[in-house]
Amino acid sequence: MANMSKYKILDQAKESFSKEDYQMALEKFAEVLQNYPNSQEAYNGVILSEMALSGEGGAEALFDYYEILKEEDKEEADAIMSEILKNMDGTLEELGQVFAQPLRERLEYEDGILYSDFQKLLDEGGEFKEIFENIMFSTRVIITEKEDFLDFLDKLIENGFADMALSYLENALSVYPSDKLLQKLLKKLAKGKKA
Predict the structure, then answer these.
(1) Following CA atoms 127, 133, 135, 136 in sequence, which dihedral angle do they give, to the nearest 10 degrees?
(2) Which of 164, 193, 156 is nearest to 65 (CA)?
(3) Segment-wise mean pLDDT, segments of 10 residues, the chain, 195 residues
């Protein structure tokens, strides 16, 4: 397979994925991977296609994020996506089990500070970064409302905790893949990483 056709087939694979023809995308990515076993883009494409085919939420959002990252730095995008996919193994199932428990039962097992209390500290004039760094090593922030979660993610991004925000966001998108506000935050995060 010539270099030109490698990129042509990758383009066809990405186009198929975008059209939600995940089986065709999988076949095209696999074709490139067969001829170029070291192609990280093809490897990531195969995994994302398999995720989408198995109905695993978040595959589309991760694919979009990957495409955004590649516009800035392809090699770094490949590395970031590989790390995300490696770390996702088992995370989706665990997250689903956590959300299946009643809220009160979950809070009994948690040791942390409610987001409303965390917000009070901020309202009293504290700096987000300082307060968050002080509590993140000793306890956790417990968030029970979607609006609080979105606010928390936004503050993480604004205060230089982009990697942590990405981790929270990926998990949330795997549970709520079509949530517009989460997708908007993902785009904001991707723009921040480019800066």
Answers:
(1) 140
(2) 193
(3) 74 92 91 87 88 78 83 82 68 43 43 75 82 70 74 81 79 72 76 57
Distance of alpha carbon 194 from its chain centroid, rounded?
16
Helix axes 40-53, 22-35, angle to 10 degrees: 150
> Distance between CA 81 and CA 59 in Å, rounded?
11
Q: At what angle do helices 91-100 and 74-88 cross, to 10 degrees?
A: 50
Q: Which helix (H) or strand (E) holds 112?
A: strand 112-114
Q: For the whole model, what pTM was predicted?
A: 0.46
d(CA 70, CA 72): 5
Please name the amino acid found at residue 89: D
